[in-house]
Amino acid sequence: DLDECASSPCKDEQYCLNTDGSFSCKACDASCVGCTGEGSDKCKTCASGYVKEDEKCTDIDECNLPEKVCMKENEDCVNTSGSYKCVCSEGFEDKDVTCFQT
């Protein structure tokens, strides 16, 4: 078997998987910018919103940072994979640029 992966035939956001007589390109984990294999522990560098912790790229919980990320009154922070979103608290709805009581 010729190791086709030796010539790095895959795109930047993929890793090469050698198979008998062939190879396949697999997508890197969402937490990675470039990778050497499957999973968040094989990242070359961590994507934005992720930090290297115990040799893995893990999500940063922006909602638990000391500095508030959602600044509007009656607005809650919801952590998402690699990011966060700001939503109006329960009983409030987004009107123009503020959260009004419903």
TrEMBL record:
Q: Does the keyword Disulfide bond apply?
A: yes
Pfam families linked: EGF_CA
Annotated EGF-like domain ranges read: 59-100
Q: State the InterPro entries in the record.
A: ECM_structural_protein, EGF, EGF-like_Ca-bd_dom, EGF-type_Asp/Asn_hydroxyl_site, EGF_Ca-bd_CS, Furin_repeat, NOTCH1_EGF-like
Q: Which keywords describe this protein according to UniProt? A: Disulfide bond, EGF-like domain, Repeat, Signal
Keyword Repeat attributed: yes
In which domain of life is the source organism classified? Eukaryota
Give the matching Gene3D superfamilies.
Answer: Laminin
Molecular functions per Gene Ontology: calcium ion binding
Give the UniProt family note.
Answer: Belongs to the CRELD family.
Q: What is this protein called?
A: CRE2A protein
Q: Which organism is it from?
A: Chauna torquata
